[in-house]
Amino acid sequence: MTPIRVGVIGIGGVGGRVLEGFGMHEQTQVTAVCDLNPDLAKRVAEEHGAAAWYTDYREMLRGSELDLVYIAVPPKLHHRMAMDVLERGLHLFCEKPLANSVEEAQEMWEAAERAGVVHAMNFPTPYRSVWSEFSRLVEEGHLGELRRLDVTLQFHTWPRKWQQNPWIAGREQGGFVREVLPHYIQLIQHRFGRIARVHSEMTYGDDPNLCETAVLATFELDNGVRVLVDGQSNIAQKERIAFTAYGTEGTMQLADWSILRTGGVDEALETVPVPENNRHLGLIEDLVQAIDGKPAMLFDFRIGYEVQRVLEAVLSGGTHEL
C-alpha cells in the first residue's frame, strides 16, 4: 500500500505527540508540517526526512501533495482551517473540541459529510488498553445497575507548567473545561448513553479575560442516570483526574487516564494491573483502515458536534435540554 501522505498543522504539545505516531506507523508518511514557529517547523521537518515545512497552512495546502491533514491548533482556528482542508477534498483529523461554537461544529460536520472524506477527532482514550478493560467489565456486568457517574478534574494550577501559551488560560477558547472535559463527555456518550440535560455553575476570577477557576455541573442521561462534574483549579492539591462509575454490584474508576481501580460490594477500590499501549498508534491504525475503505473505530465530526453541544451548555451555565 502506498503510504498515506500526512500534513500536520500545529506541532507543539499534543500535536507533536500525535505527529510522532504518524512517523512510527508504516503506512503513514509525514510529508509536510506547519507551525508559526519557523525554527520548530524546520527542526521537526528535518526529523521526518523529506518533509516540507511551512509557517502558513494555506501555503502547505497549495505546495504539498497530501492525503490527510491533522489540525492541532487552538479551537478558534479549527473552523477556518478545516473548511479550507475540506474544500480540497482531503481526509481530516482534528483536535478536540471540534470548534469554538456549536454553529461552527455543525458546519464542519456537514462540510465533511458533503466532501465524502474520512473525518475523525483525536479522542485517544478509547484506544487505551485500560479503557478496553474498563469497557469489558461494564459489559460483563461488574457494576450491576449503574447508579451514577462522577468526573473529577482538580488542578493545582491552570495552565499546567507544560502548557504555557497565549490562549490556554484565556476565557475565549482556553480553560480546563474546554481542554479536558470533552474527553469524558465523549466517553460517557459512547459507553453509557446520550446526555439529555445539563445544569452547570461556572466560577471565574476577577480578570474577564481569564478562564474558569471552577465548574460544578450535573448531567442527566436519556436513561435517567445522573453525572456529577466537579472541577477546580488553583488549589493546593496535586493534579487529580478521575472518572468513576458507581453501581449496585461494583464501582470502577479510571484515574489519571491510565489507572483502573475496581471494587465490589462493601470493598475498597483496588488497582487492576493493565499493560499500557500506544494509544496514538491504535487511533492512527484505525484512520489508515478507514482511508483504505476497511471497517474502523473512529469518532467522527458528528460525534465531535454532539460533544460540542454538551460542552457549550456547560460553559454557558444554567439549565439546558439537549
Automatic annotation (TrEMBL):
Pfam families given in the database record: GFO_IDH_MocA, GFO_IDH_MocA_C3
Domain Gfo/Idh/MocA-like oxidoreductase N-terminal residue range list: 4-122
Residue ranges constituting the GFO/IDH/MocA-like oxidoreductase domain according to the UniProt record: 135-252
Keyword Oxidoreductase among record annotations: yes
Keyword Transit peptide: no
Sorted UniProt keywords: Oxidoreductase
Lineage top rank: taxon: Bacteria
Coiled coil, from the record: none
Protein name per the record: Gfo/Idh/MocA family oxidoreductase
